[in-house]
User: Fold these one by one.
Assistant:
Number 1:
Amino acid sequence: MNACVWCGRRLSGVVTVSQLWRWGPLVKTDVCQDCQTRLTPISSQHCPQCGRQQTDETVCHDCQRWAGQPLVNHALYVYDAAMKAYMQQYKFQGDYALRRVLQEPLRLALARESYDILVPIPVDQATWQQRGFNQVTGWLQTQPFQQALLVQATHKDQPQSAKDRAARLRTQQPFTLALNAADILRDQRVLLLDDVYTTGRTLRHAAEQIYLGGAKAVTSLTLAR
Amino acid sequence: MTNDEAFFGRQLPFQTAPAPDLTATPALKAMGSRLQCQRCGHWLGPQDQLANQAWYCRQCLQLGRLTSQHKLYTIPEPNQLPKLPDGGLTWQGELSAQQQVAAQSVLAHVQSQTNHLLWAVTGAGKTEIVYPALVWALSQGWRVAWTSPRVDVCLELAPRLQAAFANVAQTVLYGDQPQPYQYCPLTICTTHQLLRFQAAFDLIVVDEVDAFPLATSPMLKRAVDHAQKPTGCHLLLTATPGEGLQRRVARKELAVTYVPLRYHGHLLPQIDLQIAWRWREKLRHGHLPVRLIRQLRAYCQAGQRFLLFVPHVADLPLVDRALHLAGITGGVTVHAADEARQEKVQAMRDRRVAFLVTTTILERGVTFPNVAVVILGGDDPVFSTAALVQIAGRVGRSAQFPTGDVTCYCHSYARRVRLARGMIARLNLQGRRQGGRP
């Protein structure tokens, strides 16, 4: 039988009355009930700029420090221990099958966003070689996207996730525009897609380049904040 | 230049050859239309493919991902090990008469290189019984692995073996160990770590062979066979062999040595069965069986420390609250994911707490002198026959307090409880023949 992609436990093939009533093909899930609720979704009380979960709806301290460049980000889940464990297994151990855990939630989230072009954050060549996939595009199923950004081939001396906040903020612009990007981006509303929003440095670098390409608006969506 | 020793009898994955003269096999091999992982034996599914078209094995991902771009590199085990005349033994202890008999039998089987099961009751001194065989193996220049599915068993064992074989170089391998790998005559490791070896060991001692996850994992069983040389043999140690092992013993496929008596010569305590009708429904309403409460109260008044086993982590808070209402205080609850697990167990050892309420995590590998054991819901499927016998074996382990109570509260007289009582009765019958005292 089917097993949950995350915890490996057998999926109980329970058919509910409401599924029968719908009279369509049965929807196959890859993830068990426990794993679906393991990640904490961000509630309506979040920072309006970066999407961070908090107790009120005012702009958070980190976003106030980003005075010059406002970027509206939405995030799906809190970056807690469960999300860290997920990212560890998916990104760093390279368990590509785990992409299926978040494909469905991301599809629903993308349906709620209004944008013309979806631009996932790219991975550099060395990471692609080593990991064998781009963790962001792995979550997309049939949604169309444009690889409008390129990341500089010079390999980072240290991954972004191993740096502290100050070091992250000092990061130089890593992105350039792809060759035909200007034609695609002109006067379009662009949605950037990334895995984790930590300081916002990466997304702001990307947004800068997208604006240079002629986009009229840039927002972003991340899986975790 | 890579260190050759690091490859002796191992299978290490690399994308490009780390050194010229190494034997290499593809990490994922096509067998018919499917791919098989050469490290763990897992058959890849149709969806185990990366975006760059490479395939990868999901089963042994924890040891570092293997893809179809990797190869496994090895140097066949050359046994470049010192032949210690006395086996490097520095242990000063003495084996009892019946331990001596068992040790001779184990030694004979190791010398004839046959697979062997040492079925010794909890608290029989299994580790020490193996020492003579280990001394002989090390004196022959054999490479030996002592492995267990449980990391706590390895961690407890390592210092003991280090002290007993002070002249033998040893290395300890487990999931997040701090030291780097070393080529040694004696390797102490979890069964998962055997996946990194290939035809390396002349003798593999598998401690607690019936413990989770080895008992249910074909991958780990294959790992033990794979890490063993074709000419090698393995020695299985357990107090509670599962039905599969017992069947192999009955069919004479596996030689066995019984040690039915504990080292202090007393019999195992039998499980006392108490029917507690619908205990689970009662617990849901916050009540414990009346007889259980009465028994625990008596323990508290007498100053008798005890372990209370419950089936699930979710039962712990309910039981804890019910005990509190009944005025039985002074204990703590422990479960596998508990961050303070080690401290709480240590507190129980140091007699700072009166009792522990726990799940099956404390079923084996822990020793508290003079405790009583109470099992609530012994008919729950999480308590296997082996688990029940192991839990009963927590009682009477020390020579000063060789007896004690084991009480099991069940809704019904379940098959597993019956089998556990049967196994204890059978071992005690054999023990009595050898002069065991109740």
Number 2:
Amino acid sequence: MGEIFTLALLFSSLRLATPLIFAALGGLFSERSGVINIALEGLMLAGAFTAAVVTYQVGDPYIGVLAGVAAGAFLAFIYAVACIKFEADQVVAGMAINFLMIGLPALISGAIYDSSGSTPQIDKILQLPDFYNRISIATIVALALVPVCWWIMYKTPFGLRIRATGENPDAAETAGVNVIRLRYVAVTISGVLAGLGGAYLSIGQSSLFTRNMTAGRGFIALAALILAKWRPVPVLGACLFFGLTEALSIQIQGASWAKIGGEEIPVQFIQIIPYLLTIIVLAGFIGLSRAPKALGIPYSKED
Amino acid sequence: MKILKEIIWPLVAVVAAFIVGGIVILMLGDNPIEAYRLLLSSSFGSLRDVGWMLHYATPLIFTGLAVAVALRCGLLNIGAEGQLYVAAFAAAWVGIKFGGTIVTVGTDHQNWSWASLPAILLVPMCIAAAIIAGAVWGGIPGVLKAKFGSHEVINTIMLNFIGIALVSYFTQYYYKIPGDPILQTAPIGENATIPQLSSFIPGLPADVPLNVAFLLAILACIAVYIFLWKTKWGYELRAVGQNPSAAEYGGISPKKQIILAMTISGALAGMVGIGEVLGTRHNFYNGFSAEWGFLGIAVALLGRNHPLGVFVAAIFFGVLLRGEIFVDAFTSKVSKDLGWVLQAIIILFVACLQKYSRK
């Protein structure tokens, strides 16, 4: 059993947790302001695709990251318009954003690169750098963002306004908060962070964008957010845990230690742990997970 | 006038989506008129085209109905994908275990089945297995919502991942023919299969996989209509969907209706397994669904959660699914992902316009 928890597994977990941390922190802003963000998956895809294309075209990964962030923010703004201005059902609109990002990148890369499955590979030197070949610069940024988000959320007037808006928008409005504008800002921030997470996937963890490359990470990030009860520091813990389960399920394939009584542990059993845990937590078996009170309810001033 | 009011906003959404889609095609450097002409002619050009298009529409009728029934109770079932996976596997399992399946590994003939039942018993058993498995997988989030108040959207998403992982596990470790590189089960018994419509309809070519499941889908539309509007349970279900507290005040238990709605929803999604396993593939193939469970959301929204609307919307999406392959092949720039983009824009427009249709 000693072989399981090696340094390699730790680094692998950190690496796999990185996009989740970005996306979940993004979801935190949106959801604490009262807007459900099931679109995290699509926002990540927007960031991943744009970062890969721009890095390939321009030859600079940092411009690529900026472009990915801009794409995530732009798409999140469209989502915000649907949810806030048109009071669309947030889950339905979020799923639409996810569908759009399955099709649109493939459509665009099919038209410009004649390959709808993936974008062209970028050079190794254009990928986001790793320190000591182990820890990506993105991982360090993600880890640093956790205390920053905590500070914003709990120590600044902006954070207080977000939390107040998510709990009781009417009271917040009476106290002078522009609820509508605040929600636009919060949802757009979630696009910025999810876009960052996506950019890391395509030009950090790998060297190109492949169709639907997030493979459910947006939903896992959402699960981490719920598991963490919508608080930044526990978000880190949940993401690290989910990163660990993913790292384990990669390592387990063919590994000699991965046996119980001579039978190998099926990889699927490790893969479902995050999902199962989320259901159990939601059902209140491990402490109550209480969502922001106004989560999912459109706000209109007339009411 | 009432009908006009019901269909005007979905129509606006579709037209708007096609305009936006047309702009996208134009920007990619192709002719939108030509792309849309291909889209239509590939579904209505011949009887064969119509057959294929209806084949694509069939799973969407089931998943559209599934999402619609849940939405009528105020619940969003994003779990149809997981439900139809679990159901398809269950149908295949019964078809193997009671269908006399013999698997040949090298020179070794292994009997994987417990019995070899006649079709008259086996087909209903397989159908029941699909329906029950779907109902259970849909019922779980219903129970979780009723008992613990946990949100069905999150739980159905989680159960999608769990359900798909579980059936992939069973397929890989127990029901895959050793040496098969594809993650799929052994074939179901001959007696578990249902016929293609080409064997009844003269002029419909035999390569069109449209099968009896399409007729079941029509029956399901009628059954859902009768259930929702002609029975007490259906009335109560809709009452909870419109106003849970008023329904409770009127003596209706929202908890019971939530469980009922999710169970029926899961059962309907599970019926996708019938056509796919018994009618088309004759085994369970991991990856058989083209995200039908998620498309069901679009179908239900566009169909205004009414069985007739769901049917029409499913046909519309059938045209998209059939046509995108042709658009891909016969235009220079547009790939078959155009379908996804159009669907996404339609959902977004319908969601945004709902505010106005409520007035």
Number 3:
Amino acid sequence: MLQIKPVLAALKRHKAGTVLIGLQIALTLAIVCNALFLIQQKVTHLSRTTGIVESDLLTVGSEWTNASGVEVGSLVRTDLQTLRQLPGVADVGVSYGYPLRGGGWNDGVSTKPDAKQSAALAWRFFVDDHVLSVLGAKLIAGRNFRPDEIRVVDSHNLVTPAQLIITKALADKVYPNQSALGKPLYIAAATSPSTIIGIIDHLQGGSASSWSDAISDYVVLEPKLLTDKSNAYLVRAQPGQLSAITKVVRTALFKTNRMRIIPDGEGEGAGVRSFAQVREQAYKSDRGMAIIMSVICAVLLIITAAGIVGLTSFWVSQRRKQIGVRRALGATRGDILSYFLAENFLISLGGVLAGIVLALGMSLWLVMHFETQRLSLPYVLVGVLLLLLLGQAATLAPALRASRVSPVEATRST
Amino acid sequence: MFAYYFELGLRSLRRNPVLTALMVMAIGFGVAASMTTYAVFRAVSGNPLPDKSGQLFVPQIDNWGPQSRKTGGDLPESLSYTDAMALMHAHKAVRQTAIYPVGFTLVPVDPSSQPFAVNGYAAYADFFAMFDVPFQYGSGWQGVDDDNRANVVVISNELNQKIFAGANSVGRGIQLDGRDYRIAGVVADWDPRPRFYDVNNGSGFGDAPDVFMPLTRAIDLQTETLGNNNCYGTTGQAPGWDGWLHSECAWISLWVELPDANAVARYQSYLEAYAADQQHAGRFHWVPNIRLSNLMQWLDREHVVPKETTVSLVLALGFLLVCLVNTIGLLLAKFMRRASEIGVRRALGASRRQIYTQFLTEAAVVGVAGGLLGLLLTAFGVLGISLVFEPEIARLARLNVSLVGFTLLVSVAATVVAAFYPTWRAARVQPAWQLKSN
């Protein structure tokens, strides 16, 4: 049976060391469980699905240097033809706005005209009749746009479209507990309604930033080609043909018409991006934060463990004589081992109790200053378990060494 | 004496290589994590215009009403065209400029090279004097060019290099979106970080602008804003360009130069009077609500320092704290192990002060070693920053002389501070007791 009293009595003689280990455990717990929580949030954030088939998809942004109005309509049609004739291309659509694009257009939508408070804020994607199938988004009710429904307009003269396709999430939001199919929807300042002709299962909005999390699944598709905005060609490649198409697409477009800009580079502004790149860039900072937090957690745990090993070793070497005496008086190796493990357990327990308070305080501070979410209790529990185990593991080596101290030590003078 | 203590310290550290390595690593990692995140924080939180930031102000006007703030929003961060023009024409500040981001395309004469995008700002002539813009050639355009809505531009040094191979291009022509402009000046390398006059549109750390042109001309040409266009309650907005121009959509930034507190107070009351006038005229159906922020207040309000940056700095500092607590514990173990040595030294006449000096020197040696390790790790950290932060922010963080000095200083100072308690304990060792027990 463990003797708590002698352990406590011994700790009283090593107040400073005890407090230091306890403090270190408390601080580590506070940081580790907050960091774990943030990591989990980032990971959840970046594992959201887009609702499209992401492989074999290429986005090509091209802007005209001089064209405007109706002219853009015919130029885009020529481009689409060029792209569709490229070897390895399955289909091509043109769109202003696509999932994770990095910004775009959002507006309020409502079910009644002149509503002072709109029912929801939603992303507006302006698409042609190919986009749905190119993206691989699943239509769960109604129909896709027909070619003759696509209007060529500029962004200052947006006529209210007769038809709309919306996501299921938005449909459930504006028309809860009923089918939204065939119902009217007013976009932004529209005075006349558009009819919802189709509902898609899921489609993510144009940004991965946390400001847009609330509207991430609310998307309205309008059958339009905007002549004054940077449209993107969405190219669906046949399996395995993506890299071949990526190599030739720029040259092919410039051969058709030189008066355009397709930005170079690899970053968010680049003209030609595979959807894998789009996703990677959209979640760059989320992933980076998760990595940095994991590294900090790992190094922190290692350092705390090292600190425990260091101080416990010191205590063991300080008490060799006492250990010898105990052994000589009949204590088994197991008794010595469990003594040091119990000592560490007591200190760790004190440390984690203080750490829980610190962790909650730190979480509260983060919530107040950075609008993060409140730390949930399971993370604290995981952190507590982690640190108690870590403490025991770190004590094991010095404690084993202590248990091997020979009873002869009792007779030595130092 | 110091050299002697230094040697003693080295010898003692060599005696327990594992313990020493632990301390050096703890300090090294702690300092490196803090310094890497601090490098980023310093890069984004600086004052872009230290000499003038107290005299530059941004007015905000509530043209949407309290209803728009129900969901927790704030005053619109830009002005509507109507308000921006009213404030420009009133001319109540020493200098003032409305600004919005614009983009053009430039088609090179050489048919083998591809057209490229030229981005910049539409502004007023005062822009250049207000923000102390340095010129390589020529100067900004004149106020009269604003009034005449002249086809004139100021281009960047970089664009000048690209098209005119760096020659003095003042007075020459340049074609943007197929229209001819006369070049009034070439800006020398100038890109304040953050780009304070446009933080409401981008991160404030993007690529430097290539071109500036009179805002009056840009409006005539119906040049779209490349920045945010925020509309609220657009019901009733007329279609087309003019409809948008006269809507309550907010998309223009306004900056005013107010040299002293009196001027600030006068401008404040002018803004209040303006908003009250709008209320009387029936445009605003609410109590006038305006705000005037100076440059640094504005950067703060616009959250120019990204959330990630501050959170990681806080975590890294917490990390350093743990490392320090760890070091205190290890130093305590190390010093107290030598109680008998201290007893002998004290018995032979060493004063407490001398014990202090000896042990603090030993700690400083650990600090220097930890600092060197920390420096190495910081260098790796700065290289790896682009993993975590946006590339435009990551490339601002550099390992320069001041960061190197600061890293070493922090690690030595932190270790010496951490050593105070263990040293105090060491100095309190009773010589008699130690000698007796031996």
